[in-house]
Write a structure and sequence with these properties.
It is a single chain. By secondary structure, the chain is of the alpha/beta class. Helices cover 35% and strands 19% of the residues. It is built from nine helices and seven strands; from the N terminus they run βββαβαβαβααβαααα. A five-stranded parallel β-sheet has the order 5-4-3-6-7, with helices on both faces. The chain is globular.
Length: 268
């Protein structure tokens, strides 16, 4: 079964019938009996797991979800947040079947390669025929320069339309295995698509608070107890949240260390 889900972003403090131009559509192929999903504990993969479970439950489908989490040695909080998200989703959808949640710590230099190997190990162990990834596109460079004073091409080249295929060609470990299909339902849009679905389903506080998109290191995050408000992922999340919830991101970002240069102001 192919599921199409749409998130419409409403204007604040106006008649609910009036919509902004923003319309986010995703497609989920739930015709597979066994599906796998990579879960980092961040906002993107967490809402994707919730959406898969939600639509499996709504349509009473005989689909089992398997999960893998590759844990970056410098960011051990990934396992904590991923486990919290899995617990939340299982509690929300008790009728959905879940298989193994496979976790593996890895060195920083092998993080991407080992994440792919972990996914393929799960595929072969359980005969999974579909893998889901919550990756989004980068925001346009002109937005990055206007809002953050940064250029997006310096980060995650695989998420730029113009460089994605070249990046894949240069990294064969990411090529699709012939025995399964890989799906990236958010890849047609930037992180706003993720926030739009959190807003649509009222999950920004409940599920969103369990996630951690920040990838700041230990010295930037008070021993991983706070978000750093300096890394690209923190800034990207703030911009997307501001756009979907209709407020000006610069109002918040101007208070952050990365923009003020005040090392003493790192409060959440």
């Amino acid at each position: 079964m192919i599921i199409n889900d749409t998130a419409l972003v409403y204007k604040r403090a106006e008649l609910s019938a009036e919509l902004r131009d923003d319309k986010y559509e995703i497609e989920l192929d739930l015709s597979h009996k066994k599906i796998g999903i990579g879960l980092s504990g961040g906002m993107d993969s967490s809402i994707l797991l919730w959406l898969l479970a939600h639509h499996i439950s709504e349509n009473n489908l005989d689909v089992r979800i398997y999960i893998w989490t590759c844990i970056h040695e410098e960011k051990p909080g990934q396992s904590v947040h991923a486990k919290k998200v899995v617990e939340f989703v299982k509690a929300e959808f008790p009728n959905v079947k879940f298989g193994e949640h496979m976790l593996m710590p890895t060195t920083a230099k092998d993080y991407i390669a080992n994440g792919t190997k972990l996914a393929y190990e799960l595929v072969r162990k359980y005969g999974i025929t579909a893998l889901y990834n919550g990756v989004t596109l980068n925001p346009p460079n002109e937005i990055g320069e206007a809002v953050w004073k940064h250029k997006w091409e310096t980060r995650a080249l695989s998420r730029n339309w113009e460089t994605r295929q070249k990046w894949i060609d240069q990294n064969p470990v990411h090529n699709v295995d012939p025995f399964h299909t890989e799906y990236r339902p958010f890849i047609h849009a930037d992180k706003r698509v993720v926030l739009a679905f959190y807003k649509k389903y009222g999950l920004y506080v409940s599920l969103g608070s369990l996630t951690r998109s920040c990838e700041g290191f230990i010295e930037m995050t008070n021993y991983f107890t706070e978000t750093c408000k300096e890394c690209w992922w923190c800034i990207e999340k703030e911009w997307a949240t501001a756009d979907i919830f209709n407020y000006e991101p610069k109002v918040m970002l101007d208070k952050w260390v990365a923009f003020t240069g005040d090392d003493n102001d790192n409060s959440n």
